[in-house]
Amino acid sequence: MERYKLIKEVGDGTFGSVWRGINKLSGEVVAIKRMKKKYYSWEDCVNLREVKSLRKMNHPNIVKLKEVIREHDILYFVFEYMECNLYQLMKDREKLFSESVVRNWCFQIFQALSYMHQRGYFHRDLKPENLLVTKGIIKIADFGLAREINSNPPYTEYVSTRWYRAPEVLLQSYVYSSKVDMWAMGAIMAELFTLRPLFPGSSEADEIYKICSVIGTPTQDSWPDGLNLARAINYQFPQLAGVQLSALMPSVSKDAIDLITSLCSWDPCNRPTAAEALQHPFFQSCFSVPPSLRPKEAVSRTPPSVGARLSREQQCNKRYYGTLSDAKLNSNFSSSKSCSYMSTGVQRKLEMANQDLNRKDKPFKTSTRQPKYQPPGKKSPTAAAVVNKGRAVLGVSDASEKLASMTIGSRRQPLGQQPKPPPMKAGVQWNAESGDMFLRPTQHIQPSRTFSRKVAG
């Protein structure tokens, strides 16, 4: 920690406090999370869910963990610095956010959630305080409660702030999935539009009452598993009809209301996944390319045989650069297709070059007089000219054959196949700034005496 200077405390949570700091060597501003619990070995540090999950993720909308430091049995996480969080932007704001701003933020969050869920993790603690913003870029932070999707239940009962907690968790279900993140996103979206929490319950029972007052009481048809969970803990749902979300958010579009309604469904199976949410009509404009950025179709004078292939290429470009509202999120533009398009372009140029060569050769042959045949001799200039001409023609034909057989390969690495970082080892300090994410040995510190601490409920 001698390389960093702590400037100001910017947040305090259950498990640690966050400080704004600066790297003394590079001058970079960073966020340093100081854990409240003592850690006496590197094994304990390496096995933390926040460390394990963040080391496996590299996404522009997930906060980057730069370094892990253990000093005097205190653990520090060094993150990239973000200016503020969503809660700070909302709490003192009087004017509502525009729908385009909310759409841009939510689109980025759903991309990060889709990336995270596809890699086997769900966050479990999504709330405005854990969504960090800097100049229009939003990132998910605080993976202290992150859990692997394939891990064995039972899961912990407390997973997130009450206002954004899914109903299956409120009913003390020990088996839940990444759909708890989707419920939280529905509540966060509604809060971004109204600047007020959608379900501000003061307790678990009051939270369920607030949910029923908005979306109505669940029935045997809408959520049979929820009724079984309530029956198991002797809880009876309040009988409420609910209200239309459009009445609570009159200035919000129908697409946004429809997405929030699906995200805040009683039954987790009826909530869309993050990838499905990105395909919702609410995000249709996020896939559109402005006309000023679309490529202009070049008028090319090509032979008829090449024109057919070129028209197919232009149609492919139209489909790729146009509106992608009907496209799938994980649509793969394979490198083999792009290579075939590129090789077609090379072949077209070669054909045009050969045609030009033929045009130039024809008048040259007709205009020159054919010399009389003379037996070639060793010192005959005519023989030398013929030999040199033959070599030149042979060189052109060889070059054209080599260029015609040329193929262009693609070195682009397929999506989703990113190199995995090497496993961390005990007794070392991990640094993510280098390309190989190397581990540095640190000075061994003798365990200090034990202090009593409070246990967060």
From TrEMBL:
Domain of life according to the entry: Eukaryota
GO molecular function, one term: ATP binding
Disordered as annotated region, ranges: 355-383, 406-429
Keywords: ATP-binding, Cell projection, Cytoplasm, Cytoskeleton, Kinase, Magnesium, Metal-binding, Nucleotide-binding, Nucleus, Phosphoprotein, Serine/threonine-protein kinase, Transferase
Cofactor: Mg(2+)
Residues of the Protein kinase domain: 4-283
A GO CC term attached to the entry: nucleus
Gene3D superfamilies: Phosphorylase Kinase, domain 1, Transferase(Phosphotransferase) domain 1
Compartments where found: Cell projection, Cilium; Cytoplasm, Cytoskeleton; Nucleus
Catalysed reaction, written as an equation: L-seryl-[protein] + ATP = O-phospho-L-seryl-[protein] + ADP + H(+); L-threonyl-[protein] + ATP = O-phospho-L-threonyl-[protein] + ADP + H(+)
InterPro entries registered for this protein in UniProt: Kinase-like_dom_sf, MAPK, Prot_kinase_dom, Protein_kinase_ATP_BS, Ser/Thr_kinase_AS
Binding, ATP: 33
Similarity comment: family membership: Belongs to the protein kinase superfamily. CMGC Ser/Thr protein kinase family. CDC2/CDKX subfamily.
Protein name: Protein kinase domain-containing protein
Originating species: Rubroshorea leprosula
Source taxonomy: Eukaryota, Viridiplantae, Streptophyta, Embryophyta, Tracheophyta
